Amino acid sequence: MRDHEKQWRIDLAAAFRWAARLGFHEAVANHFSLAVSEDGSRFLIQPRGRHFSKVRASELLLVDAEGTVLEGKGTLDPTAFHIHSAIHRRLPQARCILHTHMPYATALACIEGGRLEPVSQNALKFYGRVAYDEDFGGMALDISEGERLCAALGEKPILFMGNHGVTVAGSTVAEAFDELYFLEKACETQALAMSTGRPLKQVPDAVARTTCRQWQDYPDLAPLHFEELKRILDEEEPDYAM
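Predicted structure:
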């Protein structure tokens, strides 16, 4: 597992660096994690107060389901623990969890009845794959809030958190980051279309379902995307992998 963990650390650090480059981050808040055990009882996450643009593979904390830091220097943010620990424990298939307040997706989560509408090719990647939580309960500072968010996510990979942000879950860092990227692009397109004041042009359900399936069947899109992102970092910010 140690050989795998080294690569997992590098991948997660790359996701942090690119989230910062793309403006998906917010101050030293928001959290990315990756389970290193099949049951989700141990996972990697950034230390509290570390800016996304500075995260390195070696400094990621290894923590357990109780929030105990097993390896690494620093402390675990309490909201990170309550959100990520609950999802990793209850949904072990969600190995990588990316929680952000990225601007366009968060703006949509702040609209009454806000939904990602099937109006663009990028949006159709998520057709039928998004869960919505409209019962904002304040910051996730106790286990009940984490459990509630976990129940809202269920088996879906995307959770819009009303008045809060979004959480994306995937089986790998590459998969989760690819979803995060296209989710924000889809939300940006929808926001721009809504800003015209003209009606949104909805794609029919049958076409939306077909296009979503085409997205899922498209060969190696996520790993190819993520490998290119890491190559850019290898050239421009190689310290991410240290």
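Summary: Residues 173-195 form the longest helix (23 residues).
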